[in-house]
Amino acid sequence: MDSESLLLSLELAAGSGQGLSPERRAALLTSLQLVKRDYRYDRVLFWGRILGIVADYYIAQGLSEDQLAPRKTLYSLNCMEWSLLPPATEEMAAQMAVVKGRFMGDPSHEYEHTEFQKMPAEGEKTFEDDVVIDKAVAVIPRGALFKTPFGPVHVNRTFEGLSLSEARKLSSYFHFRDPVGLKNKTLLEKADLDPSLDFLDSLEHDIPKGSWSVQMERGNSLVVLRSLLWPGLTFFHTPRTRNHGYIYVGTGEKNMDLPFML
């Protein structure tokens, strides 16, 4: 959720139990504005909170003018002091792939594991195939961003929200990341797409089918999407307005049993 509309966004997401105390809200409102100024970001998003055993991590992201450019990630333990996380390397991803269980909530904690040598079988997924949580849960409504003919992606200042009928459709929501599935579409399948708006992957194509819940709340004045694959992710949008955003509050663990629950 955008730091510029943080209080309203937190209020809209509060129905999913994703609220914060007044003290935390006040601290976030001030500190994220300072992060935006000091790091000279175009936008700062409050990403959410990862629940740890000892303490929780509050996560924010800094965006440049090109909204799909690599984002900078920051974390805080108190919503006031923020530290910049270095970009994850392949070596770091490989090390994290063998760590199981909850986050401790202590940045200095060293995780231990017993390593077993095992060659992946043919067709077996390796850590490179795993979808990181941010790429799986960051969501925007269709039209909130637009792609220029020269490539960069910007915030669509003319976006006034989805209509009520469109807001009910899962196809009206996109993954806020570089497209993956869209590249595999044929020219015929792309013929009906608007290249300035339909340049991202739609949630309706996510696997497994049924991994998103779409609900209308507050007398059909608010649409809420919840991820069943990543419990704790809530996206909200007020139809016919610019108000939209997402927040994750959870342990960072994927619901591996979902295919058997659907």
Describe this structure in words.
The longest helix is centred in the first third of the chain and has 18 residues, at 22-39. This protein is of the alpha+beta class and 262 residues long. The model is unreliable at 116-131 (pLDDT under 50). Strands 4-3-2-1-12-11-10-9 form an eight-stranded mixed β-sheet. It has a two-stranded antiparallel sheet with strand order 5-8. A two-stranded antiparallel ribbon has the order 6-7. It has seven helices and twelve strands. It is 19% helix and 22% strand. It has one domain. The two termini are 29 Å apart.
Q: What is the spatial order of strands in the main beta sheet? A: 4-3-2-1-12-11-10-9
Portion of residues in beta strands equals: 15-25%
Tally of individual helices: 7
Number of E strands: 12
What is the gyration radius calculated from CA atoms?
A: 19 Å
Query: How do the SSEs run, as a string of H and E?
Result: HHEEEEHHEEEHEHEEEEH
- Judged by helices, strands and strand pairing, the structural class is alpha+beta
State the helical fraction: 10-25%
- Domain count, please report it: 1
Mean pLDDT: 85
Shape: globular
Measured distance between first and last alpha carbons: 29 Å
Poorly predicted tracts of residues: 116-131
Query: How many strands, which pairing sense, and closed or not: the largest β-sheet?
Result: 8 strands, mixed
